[in-house]
Write a structure and sequence with these properties.
With about 1000 residues, the protein is α+β, with helices and mostly antiparallel strands. It is built from 9 helices and 57 strands. Helix 4 packs antiparallel against helix 5, helix 6 runs parallel beside helix 8 and helix 7 (about 865-880) packs antiparallel against helix 8 (about 880-895).
Length: about 1000
């Protein structure tokens, strides 16, 4: 149960004035600093009955302005007396690390705790090695006094702010000779005096994906890492400048306090406030408990509050603030990777984020003599011993230009580097000579146009529907997997193919949803297949061509030379033989007794790009621009040319090929599609793929009634209407993921698995995940809904139902006609007509009530049976519209008795040379899920074959990959 702010106990711990706070790593204690020489107080935060005990340390003779803790339990403090003190994890004073003639404004430990960054009343930031305070690196670039600074979680970046509201991003990577400023955000924050309550606080998010600071409009601005551009703004709750802010341990929330005595906790996903409190005094210190739902607040009156259960976690919309998501499996986070500006032309000055600022040795603070080991910041770099050698356990690459040998770049070199950076980087900032705002904007616009022009001519990356990466995508990180990593190669309503990477081979697992028909299996993949597809006929896999290197001994040898096999000195006598393995296509049947597996190798230099399989064919597109069609038994049936294929999917005897047809101008991918019958080699449709503006194609597939479907990055699902009628195909939007989530008050995303006639089958993704991970999550069903107007009204809802049913029914009738099975599904089609008529009669009744006679008459023309017209006549008579009833009688006579009403011309009339509909030799409506529908919370199956729906209503939390054991496939009736 959440606790309201007014019920939080107040601790009067300090005299009036600014107070600051930081939790220790274990969260059991919090370090608080105050004014008027009150020093530090360390409070136990898990006290019983809120009787908070504390330890006092009074080493500062003036106000404490900042405190910082590290992962080793050590903490530090800075004050107006110019001292930076270190303390042991036992809350004992250790020593003075730095002595300055100017007040200390902010301090921050490197994530490994070995270094401390310090901002004083100066334009220079100093990074001090805690184990040896003679080892110092200066960060120069600010033109005004520095107020705040913060490391990101990896230590590869630092962000700082100054009194004029300028924010700088520094590359602190060990791979850089010296730290460099890589971005300047000029006047992004407010201007504030050094002694002002406004702290211009800058804070990295826990995952390093962005950082936040107070904006100029009483808001909080968030900047995206890698590209260093505005990400989003938290605004609307403060009426004065933001004093300080802090991220929750998992980054889901951000707390901010303003001079107007308001305190807000923001949901960083929805950008809305979770808490908004009016405080008795301005809050100056905020710290989140590292593991609990708890936040520590301090204010200008010296009052402290430990607010437990600050987040109402009893509400499912508000996750626990300290529940950590699993970190990415790669060695570095996606947010810590360099942003790839040009494909192969990244400037040398661009950082590579792999480790900390310097080699992260475990150099910790050691006990030194008392007084005398501190350093005077005003004389830094002048009195350092040139012969002082770094020991093996010291920071060996802690660069100091203490002898003028050029280890640290000069001001001129720094300026040249910054100028070059501006020329090479789209987001080049530099801290050298100022560039006018107009010139900078013009340059940025030019670079952006150039980028768009270059990328427009690059075809989209090909993909397999239902595949996922081994790990979360990260810029400049190889897709190559690590030992034991797994991913999905295919995932649809038939089943899922997953692969586990091992050294030298992979393990492929195939799991079917209907295990009464097929049995799961797995096999060892020695070729490390990179793509796969699954259907009711079997599974197919492919891998690109590659070279295999084999070592052989150059000379003969007998048994006496066996010891030499392990002699590295003889390695020069080995000869390497390179063997080219052509790209491979491999088919494996679902039932081993029915068919035999087979393999085909592509031509030399030809790689398989994408694959698909239906009941009668295996289709592969290749790098030579060929589309190769094989029978299920492996017979080569067709080959034709089609360049730049982006993706392919198949079902029954159809295949949908999506390909790029030129530059992608107009903020949209320029994609075409071809709907192909792989048995007769007929092209049913060939036209443009319709996508939402500024979106990309994410998935293609077929519904259970054999209707082509697409899903884009904007969350819009489209079905191909009249796909068997020549030149009549068009894309109908049937689902809008963003609109559905917003209507239900959610921020989730939907990852398509398949489509039923009235529902989208998908995996629900929450958080920042773009793909499902392991264990295999349950599949949920979401109702389809066309984007008609006024959906919240009864009329709008009924009209949407009619149009959707009409669209669905037209496709199903075409499929039945194409497969000569109209009689088999006559009852199903009649039920659909009756359902549409029921909705139409409701609309006729509403029209009569509202005196819209012409509307009622128009609706009567759409009715599908004479019985329905009779009911419409009764409605008209009931509302005393005799004339309308007579006209309805005439419609019944003309439409259902004399059949004299005009009917739409057939395709045979307008296209006599073309078939009215493309036929098919394969049944397309016999699937177990073809006519499964949801009615009033119940499932109705017209074919009575099997139920694919389960009442599992477990919500899926997609925060991170997991290594839990996979569960059997389940559908859920939860929306």
């Amino acid at each position: 149960m959440a606790i309201i702010y007014e019920d939080v106990k107040v601790i009067y711990g300090f005299p009036d004035g600014k107070t600051v706070v930081a939790y220790k790593a274990d969260g059991k204690e919090a370090v608080v600093g105050g004014t008027q020489g009150s020093g530090l107080k360390i409070y136990e935060t898990d006290a019983i009955d809120e009787e908070y005990q504390h330890v006092e340390i009074t080493e500062h003779i003036e106000n404490v302005t900042c405190v910082a803790t590290n992962q080793n339990g050590i903490f530090a403090s800075g004050g107006n007396d110019g001292l930076v003190n270190l303390y042991t994890k036992d809350n004992k004073f250790d020593r003075i690390l730095v002595r300055s003639t100017t007040p200390i404004r902010d301090i921050c430990f490197h994530p490994n705790g070995s270094k401390l960054a310090i901002a004083a009343d100066d334009t220079v930031i100093r990074v001090i090695l805690c184990a040896d305070n003679s080892k110092i690196v200066n960060l120069e670039g600010h033109k005004h006094l520095v107020k705040s600074l913060d490391y990101d979680f990896s230590g590869n970046f630092m962000v700082s702010s100054d009194a004029q509201g300028n924010v700088r991003v520094w590359n602190m990577s060990a791979e850089e000779p010296v730290p460099k400023c890589i971005k300047v955000l000029t006047e992004y924050s407010y201007q504030a005096d050094m002694d002002s309550t406004l702290q211009t606080k800058v804070k990295w998010s826990p995952d390093g994906s962005c950082f936040a600071f107070p904006g100029t409009n009483n808001d909080v601005r968030v900047i995206k890492s890698e590209i260093w551009t505005p990400y989003y703004t938290l605004e609307g709750q403060h009426t004065s400048g933001v004093v300080t802010l802090a991220w929750s341990p998992n980054g889901y929330y951000l707390a901010s306090a303003s001079e107007d005595c308001t305190f807000a906790i923001w949901n960083t996903r929805t950008k809305a406030h979770v808490r908004l409190e009016i405080t008795s005094a301005t809050i100056t210190g905020i710290a989140w408990h590292p593991t609990e739902n708890e936040i520590f607040l301090t204010d200008v009156d010296g009052a402290l509050r430990i607010w437990k259960e600050a987040i109402p976690t009893d509400d499912s919309n508000y996750p626990h603030p300290a529940k950590m998501r699993r970190k990415p499996t790669s060695s570095t986070s996606a947010s810590q990777q360099v942003f790839k500006i040009e494909k192969d032309d990244a400037p040398d000055s661009m950082p590579t984020m792999s480790s900390s600022l310097f080699a992260d040795d475990e150099a910790l603070v050691e006990d030194d003599d008392e007084e005398g080991d501190d350093v005077n910041m005003d004389d830094m770099g002048e009195d350092l011993d040139e012969d002082d050698e770094l020991g093996e356990n010291d920071m060996g690459d802690f660069v100091i230009d203490d002898d003028g040998a050029g280890y640290v770049e000069t001001a001129e070199q720094a300026n040249e580097a910054r100028q070059q950076s501006r020329l090479n980087m789209a987001n080049g900032s530099g801290s050298g000579r100022a560039v006018s705002g107009a010139a900078a904007a013009a340059n940025a616009a030019l670079v952006q146009r150039q980028r768009k022009l270059e990328t427009a001519f690059e075809p989209p990356t090909s993909f397999q529907p239902g595949e996922t990466p081994y790990h979360k995508p990260e810029p400049n990180v190889s897709f190559a997997p690590k030992q034991g990593e797994r991913r999905y190669m295919a995932y649809n309503l038939v089943g899922a193919i997953s692969t586990i990477f091992e050294d030298g081979h992979s393990i492929i697992n195939v799991e079917f949803h209907d295990q009464s028909e097929y049995r799961n299996f797995h096999f060892t993949d020695v070729l490390n297949f990179t793509m796969g597809a699954i259907s009711s006929a079997g599974t197919v896999y492919a891998v690109e061509g590659k070279e295999a290197v084999k070592k052989t001994k150059s000379g003969g040898g007998g048994g006496d030379d066996i010891d030499n096999l392990f002699d590295s000195d003889d390695s020069d006598n080995d000869e390497e033989e390179t063997t080219q393995i052509n790209s491979t296509l491999y088919f494996r049947p679902n039932n081993t007794g029915a068919e035999k597996d087979w393999t085909h190798h592509m031509l030399p230099g030809e790689d398989v790009v994408s694959i698909a399989i239906n009941r009668v064919s295996v289709v592969a597109t290749t790098s030579l621009g060929y589309v190769r069609v094989f029978s299920i038994s492996g017979v080569q049936r067709y080959v034709f040319s089609l360049e730049n294929v982006v993706s392919i999917t198949a079902m029954t005897d159809l295949a949908l090929l999506v390909y790029s047809n030129g530059p992608a101008f107009g903020r949209q991918q320029n994609l075409d599609y071809m709907l192909l019958n792989t048995e007769t080699n007929e092209v049913l449709q060939k036209d443009k793929v319709q996508l939402t503006t500024d979106s990309e194609l994410n998935w293609i597939g077929f519904s259970e009634t054999n209707q082509a479907a697409t899903y884009d990055s904007a969350g819009v699902m489209r079905l191909l209407y009249h796909q068997r009628r020549p030149f009549q195909g068009r894309w109908v939007p049937v689902f809008d993921g963003k609109a559905y989530a917003a209507a239900n008050g959610r921020t989730e995303k939907y990852w398509p698995v398949g489509v039923l006639r009235d529902r989208l089958m998908c995996v629900i993704l929450r958080g920042s995940n773009a793909y499902p991970f392991f264990p295999r999550p349950p599949v949920k069903d979401i109702p389809l809904r066309l984007p008609l107007l006024e959906p919240s009204t009864e009329v709008g809802d009924l009209e949407e139902s009619i149009v959707r049913l009409q669209t669905c029914n037209a496709h199903e009738r075409d499929e039945a006609e194409a497969t000569n099975t109209e009689e088999d599904y006559a009852d199903t089609f009649s039920e659909t007509d009756a359902e549409m008529d029921m909705a139409l009669l409701k609309l006729i009744n509403i029209a009569c009530k509202t005196e819209k006679v012409s509307r009622a008459l128009d609706l009567t023309y759409i009715l599908h049976s004479s019985d329905s017209v009779d009911r419409a006549i009764k409605i008209a008579v009931f509302h005393h519209y005799t004339s309308l009833a007579e006209k309805m009688t005439s419609i019944k006579q003309a439409k259902f008795i004399t059949e004299s009403l005009p009917t739409p011309s057939t395709l045979a009339d307008s296209l006599a040379a073309l078939p009215s509909i493309y036929s098919s030799t394969q049944p397309t409506l016999e699937g177990d899920l073809s006519f499964v529908r949801k009615e009033k919370g119940k499932e109705r199956e017209t074919n009575h074959k099997r139920s694919m729906l389960d009442t599992d209503d477990e919500d899926l939390s997609m925060d991170s990959p997991s290594n839990k054991k996979s569960r059997p496939f389940q559908f859920s009736t939860q929306h």
